[in-house]
Amino acid sequence: MSLLVLKSSPTGPMSVSNTLVNEIVARHRELDPGVAVTERNLDAEPLPHLTAMNVDGVRAHAVTDTEIEAREVSDRLIAELFAADTLVIGAPMHNFSIPTTLRAWFDHVLRPRVTFGYSETGPKGLVTGKRAILALARGGPYVEGQPDHQESYLRELLAFIGVTEVDVVHAGGTAFGPEARAASIAEAQTAIASLVGRRLAA
Q1: N or C: which end of the chain has fewer CB atoms below 10 A?
Q2: pTM score > 0.90 for this model?
Q3: By the 8 A CB rule, do 135 and 89 touch?
Q4: How many whole angstroms separate alpha carbon 168 and alpha carbon 201?
Q5: Is the pLDDT of residue 36 over 80?
């Protein structure tokens, strides 16, 4: 088994989503010592955002040095994506959505004719046979009906490239004090143990 691990929180060792991602990886290693892990900390090593200077390197034909560099980055990220069995994505909620560092990763891997295409019936994802686990954190509680473009957006992006088997672990209310934070993390860790055990036994 191979994991592609993406961390996007800007709070480093204090990050709840990073804590959950580490737990997911540790559980996989505990149950499968041979698991291969490729990790990208998108906060520590952020990817360039797409601009007029480099966007054609991903979306069209690379001509300039800047576009060629963007194409090479995109190629490396997509190779890591195709090599993985499971994506593990950690994300805090930022302004009801995801950090721009994680969005930049998706901007580089959502590439026409490589990770998605179009058919007579509409878009078709070309990244098949993959699973994803989302480790999502937010300062407020998870309440039905509250603005949420975090989980839904990630699910849509993954489905667009063909990754539709997605499990989600939530940690909410982490800004409501140390006790609430610790309780939310503990609950999420219990869910992780059950999820990973069930997946590897399948």
Answers
A1: C
A2: yes
A3: yes
A4: 18
A5: yes
Sequence-separated (6 or more) residues with CB below 8 Å from residue 85: 1, 2, 3, 129, 130, 131
Report, as an integer, the average pLDDT of 166-173: 94
Angle at 93 between CA 153 and CA 156, to 5 degrees: 10
- Residue 182: give its domain's CATH number: 3.40.50.360
Residue numbers of the domain that contains 94: 2-201
Please tell me the total count of domains within the chain.
1
Angle, CA 29 vertex, CA 202 and CA 78 arms, to 5°: 80
| Distances 100 to 25, 96, 161 between C-alpha atoms, Å | 23, 12, 19
Sheet holding 131-137, edge to edge: 36-41, 2-7, 86-92, 131-137, 165-171
With contact defined as beta carbons under 8 Å apart, do 81 and 128 qualify? no
For 201, other C-beta atoms within 10 Å of its C-beta total: 7
Residue 42, SS3 per DSSP: coil
